[in-house]
Amino acid sequence: MEFSEWTKTKRKLNNLEQLKNEIREQFKNIDKKAIAMVSGGKDSAVAVALALECGIDVKYLVHFYHRWSWEIAKKNVEYLSKKFDIPVIYKDISEELLRRIKGAKGGSICRICKNIMKDFTADIAKENNIKVILTGDSALDRIVGAVMNYLRLEYGDVIYNRMELTPVPKKYKLLFFRPLIRLAYEDILKLQEYYNLKIEKAHEVGDRHLWREGCCLQYADYNAELNEELFNQLYKYNKIATEIAKKYGFRASIKLPSKEILTVPDEEKYKELIRKNIKFY
Predict the structure, then answer these.
(1) 168, 178, 211, 220: which sits with the fewest CB atoms below 10 Å from its CB?
(2) Cα–Cα distance between 267 and 264 in angstroms, integer?
(3) How far is the C-alpha of 34 from the C-alpha of 54, rounded, in Å?
(4) Phi then psi for 250, rounded to 5 degrees?
(5) How many CA atoms lie less than 13 Å away from 115 in the CB half-sphere?
(6) Is the pTM of the predicted complex or chain greater than 0.90?
(7) 257-269: per-residue pLDDT in tens?
(8) How confident is the model at residue 212 (pLDDT cuts 50, 70, 90)?
(9) Is the pLDDT of residue 207 over 70?
(10) What pLDDT, on the 0 to 100 scale, is given for residue 214?
């Protein structure tokens, strides 16, 4: 399978066989047992499938959820568990999330959640004597910058064929395996089809790249104060919006407290459909 021109040019990665060979080389002297963080989305599902093909022994899938999570995410994780015969560890982070958001603003919600998930996954890994955490981070994720900085310090330059397996972030004293970290959007979609992964969508708009969906809390306005009441409202109205979007074949999300309606395609007829079905407060 050939990768996109962006991946070839920007990440020196031409095709799937090259990626698999470079991953195997990185694991040459590393214990191949891993624990996988899975959100229920396509990225983490593709990451697991690719890891298994490279000979990585994925012992557990770890799925984090909270009171405002979509049920479809858990359904997708159950599908992944059955497909690959890997047990799932479920962790409810609702109370920990409410504890950590005190004084925080909307722009930090994803970072807060990711830190909680990494903290718990690291604990689980250490309890099971596992040294590698598998994630679905791709070329779209901010962690790319930290990985590149690590490589510059370690090798004097960004060595692209060492990006997938690094001890970043270092505080956990574990290795993080990110098999998709060099891949563009379109390449992950190709791999999803290649591995025949049937991942259902929540029909959200997605994050800032209009790409990753799966959590209504990301639609808190950037400077909004995070609290439980806002979370409840985000879940309530985005649940309605995504149900409408799924019924009519588009994607929709609602930002709060601004009440801004986002749709893909970005057309007024879809926004009007949402307005007709939602009465705020």
Answers:
(1) 211
(2) 7
(3) 12
(4) -140, -170
(5) 11
(6) yes
(7) 999 999 999 999 9
(8) low
(9) no
(10) 79
Rounded distance between C-alpha atoms, residue 112 and residue 231, angstroms: 14
Q: 153-196: per-residue pLDDT in tens?
A: 999 999 999 999 999 999 999 999 999 999 999 999 999 999 99
Phi, psi of 134 (to 5 degrees): -95, 130
Is the distance from CB of 246 to CB of 206 less than 8 angstroms? no
Q: Determine phi and psi for 133, rounding to 5 degrees.
A: -110, 125
The residue-averaged pLDDT of 112-119 equals 96
